[in-house]
Design brief:
Two copies of one chain form a homodimer. Chain A has 144 residues and is an alpha/beta fold. Chain A is built from four helices and five strands; from the N terminus they run αββαβαββα. The first copy, chain A, is 35% helix and 20% strand. In chain A, a hairpin with a 2-residue loop joins β1 and β2.
Chain lengths: 144, 144
């Protein structure tokens, strides 16, 4: 299996190519990738279409349950409050994220969702941090 | 037009009939209901299928944009962190909710999402509070 964060980075690159914010997410179950997605807010006209939400919906569809107890989620950017809370509702076991997001992140910053949620995944931040952060920085630099 | 909170309550009742947590949501644009939905987490195998998320996705589809600037959202229960953050991403103008939720709500309680979000809707809580709370209480009482 491809390193899950490398797979998530590939998803993020796909997003950049179609002018979506370059964030990618991958869900692992039994050491296999069962869902992968990237941000698709603009093209799908869906404010909730963040990479994590789309990956969670796909994994739940695959496993035919809204509860992904045995699953790990990899995402290139620290999740926002919406995604962090969705990760908690889905009972994700471990959350691995790449770049920290002091402005919009809600895991280590701001609303710190898991301080309040019923289910708290194990959290590991800073995986492939440099690569993940660079993708985002390059994207927004080109937008200016 | 039916009172929007009454329409949201009707949605919540539909949810109760199919054994989903009875929460309903309605989105108003130009004084018309453009989206209405109820919780559908179990039946759709989707951890993100809360009433608000489904209504936001439907309204965005209708208006062909992820940004619902001129829209108001009515929901029978104080939104959780996932839904409150989604409401913020969608730039909903006014949020009306029914029952307060000290345990799972994240508007007036817990993570208080709008204290951190870029976009903060105007918030009016306690609309049809008694009716909305009773639906939830009856549902969970029957489950015990």
């Amino acid at each position: 299996m491809l390193n899950p964060m490398v797979a998530a980075l590939k998803q993020a690159e796909k997003a950049a190519h179609i002018e979506e914010v370059p964030v990618g997410a991958v869900i692992i179950y039994n050491q296999k990738i069962i869902a992968q997605a990237h941000n698709l807010v603009c093209q799908s006209h869906d404010p909730t279409a963040h990479a994590e939400i789309l990956a969670l919906r796909e994994a739940s569809k695959q496993l035919k349950t809204p509860y992904l107890d045995g699953c790990d989620l990899y995402v290139t950017l620290e999740p926002c409050a919406m995604c962090a809370a969705a990760i908690s509702w889905a009972r994700i076991k471990r959350l691995y994220f790449g770049a920290y997001d002091p402005k919009g992140g809600a895991v280590e910053h701001n609303a710190k969702i898991f301080d309040y949620s019923f289910h708290k995944p194990e959290v590991i931040g800073g995986i492939y941090e440099k690569e993940c952060a660079e993708l985002i920085a390059t994207f927004f630099k080109a937008k200016r």
